[in-house]
## 1
Amino acid sequence: MSHSSHTLAFTFIIMISKILSNSEKVFDFVVNEGHGVKGLCDIGIQALPKQYIQPLEERITTSIVRTDNSIPLIDASNWDDPKVADQICKAPQSWGFFQVINHGVPIEILDNIKETIHRFFNLPTNEKKKYINSLSSNVRYATSFNPEAEKTLSWRDYYSLVHVSDDEATSFWPTSCRKEALEYLKSCDTVIRKILKLLMGGLNVKEIDKETEELLMGLKRINFNYYPKCPNPELSIGVGRHSDISTITLLLQDDIGGLYVKKHETNVWIHIPPVKGALVINIGDALQIMSNDKYKSVEHCMIANGSHNRVSVPIFLHPKATSVIGPLKEVLQNGENQLQENSLWRLHQHLLQQRS
């Protein structure tokens, strides 16, 4: 190695040391300069910065993980089969989660959107950070969950897109992924509508009219989640334990794995294994309220991985921002007691609290 190469390598090591030795510099590098946790990996860190070391009680340890059972895997080859409807309505009552295969979204589209996420996060930082303060409040590039307020940061970068209209997306979404994101949203629309129809059937809702549709999917949001490989995965977390605020969330995993669900009313965590071509569906807080607690919104989390970069693509279905939500009238028509109070769904406040 030449003298100049030695000098550059030494300078680089000094730069890394200065960043990692100061909490404010780590925060500035990751959050304000837009490098994200991927940027920390790119400069070759060998140990986890202290901001990312989770309290022991927040870690998902092997003592509370079970692999002997898993959430239902439902074959949706025939959406009109009563068995499919029965499975889709029962899974949210016991698990809050299920996976569907043979759902109709082509494998090529699923693979393409995952490749798009890798491509987006491999863009230069200057390209990605344009969307830290986007001209549209419906576009956001960020890291962790809410780094300004969190005591411990999550090992995740993400890019969030609220779909208002195709015209708005054309104006504000990045050209590097706009086409693919819109294609994926449209490809999943039929699956979303079929699942919601079956779930509503389980609540005695015979028809999804315009008002009900606004409650169930008045607003759509798609996230590109990127989890870089972590130097100390046993100390960190990709996304901490939480429930979604959505009506339902439709999630595409890659083949790395790491999504865990807390089994209802226990302290046992179950891994949701990646299944080629499958979509993971989970119930959110809004639908638990609408179902009067028949369907469960349960805690889940994403662990960090020390060997691979991982991606996932959730689509969140939310009530329209001005919707008043409470137990659906069809749920209460047989005299069932109302367990949830009606409330105004102020989505613009809640969106900032969404982690998945």
## 2
Amino acid sequence: MDRIMIGGLHKWLQILVCMLIVLRAESFFVDITYVQSAVAKGAVCLDGSPPAYHLNRGSGAGINNWLVHIEGGGWCNNATTCLARRNNRLGSSKQMVKQLAFSGILSNKPQFNPDFYNWNRIKVRYCDGASFTGDVEEVDPATKLYYRGARVFLAIMEDLLAKGMKNAENAVLSGCSAGGLTSILHCDSFKALLPIGTKVKCFSDAGYFINTKDVSQAQHIEAFYNDVVTTHGSAKNLPQSCTLKMKPSLCFFPQNAARDIRTPLFITNAAYDSWQIKNILAPGVADPHGLWHNCKADITKCSASQLETMQGFRLDFLNALNELGVSRSRGYFINSCYAHCQTEMQETWLRSDSPMLSNKTIAKAIGDWYHDRSPFQKIDCPYPCDKTCHNRIFEG
């Protein structure tokens, strides 16, 4: 028995070592940069600490090209939920790791990231809780919380402009999850910061959050976003083309905010986005008996009726995408995977077994679209037809 246990442990150690070798080959670590000058401008994280980012400099032909990628991490919608973030990396730069692994769209290796490997690649840390839209002048004396995300975004961009982005020939604003929403909401304002001759486009990865009912038929996400916008004072920093037409909190939804974006935008999203299934379609508040627990953890554990409900969510998602209208300059890669954020991880960005649509990986589709080699607007067939998916499985 002991030999069997030791043999099993040895096998797992071998697997772990192999995984670490692969991870090391596919990623590298980049030091953190704190924007200390932002503090005097009031451009600070929830706890008042300075904003931060990680920058890996470009080289060769990419030395004047810039890819600014925004970290994700959800939102906080009131003093209680924002206080919960104050003492972790999503609310304080004091709690952020000093080095961060870069891979996928941030990789510096041509075989892993052929179109952007030699660009200046930046990962902006997320510590404001409202996709960089908030700006409340007063600091609550009880909580000592700062709602200053819009100032943080501008302060970081000004720091990058001073470090050479003002000479950018090509520039991209991208992001994952709440960062993907940031890349949509700030797309035109990012372009406005750069020289007129700069080629600017935006990428949103898993940032197309839709306004739909949950399994209890409540508008849970709409009420939540309303609280986010109210708490952070976001209204004045949302696209004015939207807020002039409807309630500001509805402009936190891409289906409303992105209609009038002038800068070319590429949307990468799973039609069965695992975060949206877990938090918009079947949040805990709408599933008090936990009937969706196993399904949300692993899509292969969903019942026939749950899958039918998820197919309905996919249709809602596609309808929300259609609300943007037709645009030749827009691109999208909508696969039928149970996933969330597919550009930051090498396995889903560009590898021999990566997800594909029309025989193109996400990296190839986005690269061809950005460089005007070919347009890309593809929507996958319904689950479970796509055998290239890397479907998420959540433990516990």
## 3
Amino acid sequence: MEDQSSKPIRCKAAVCRAAGEPLAIEEIVVDPPRAYEIRIKIVCTTLCHTDITFWQAKVAPAFPRILGHEAYGVVESVGEHVEGFAAGDAVVPTLLSQCDHCPSCASEHNNLCSSVPITLAPGMRRDGTTRFRDAQGNPLHNLLAVSSFSEYTVVDVTQVVKVDPAIPPKIACLLGCGAGTGVGAAWRLAKVEPGSSVAIFGLGSVGLAVAQGAKMCGASKIIGVDLNPEKEKVGEAFGVTDFVNPTQIDKSSVSEVISEMTGGGVDYSFECVGLPSVMTDAFRSTRTGNGKTIILGLGNQTDLLCVPALELLFGKCLIGSALGGIKPKTDIPILAEKCMSRELELDGLVTHEVGLREINTAFDLLLQGKSLRCIIWMDK
């Protein structure tokens, strides 16, 4: 059989030609991997709210573009200087790099690689170029150097995580962003302690994954905050013990309600919406002296956060987070093991499944609030 690893591949991809427009299924060309790159055959991918943010051009607009960054696939071929990967390996691509050599990767407290740093601008991380072209030979921009809404993609070796092929593809897929972010924020970043109290603002996929992570860590009180009353029952399945709907409270603020429920505020608060006002509510809901607030929601580039300075002086802590603080190559395999042992129960995050040609249905479901994660299968 002729070796195709050094040749371009023609395949199908969902291409976004303009902000907010439906994606078009097109035949594209995917170039072979260059040095330190891996070409991946995508098995399945999902739609994340981050994809929506870029699709709506709220952050780093660039079109035409292939979106998608949460996926599972197998290695098709590798470029020069790639070690530890071979064709057929089961892998999860990630938006964050991990080179394992720079000071940031060597630090226990930093998951943002400084050797191959993340950027919101399109282009491969090492040279800024693209590996995608349309049928007419015109370049197509990538997203977060992943672009999983394509049957094949090329990703830097520092952004590829090898996983146990025994893990179900749709579960492995979730670990690359949403579930990895939520569980990691509770487990790795906040380090939620047994018997502690937690508040989660926004019970979407990330918020529910936070609940699973907090439950795994032994939190005794997990308060879900959401405007959708249906999320109360959904949250229970993921470990949420109490529920607050901001539109149905007697107090003047959510933080007052949570303070009353917990005798002074929660130990840990997680914001999973991306709105500055909700971030402030989350911060004010934590306990004086040692309360931690972790920001997971992606807002607009111009958003500013306002919190009471005096509350910071009284010991409260506000923490930003990328991918929940996890180191992809180190922690995603651990999370995969916890899923297979049922220590983590993430199956309920998958509410819908479609094929690539129905990808716009996934957008409709998420925008209408009818889905958590919609798995998009390449061969369905």
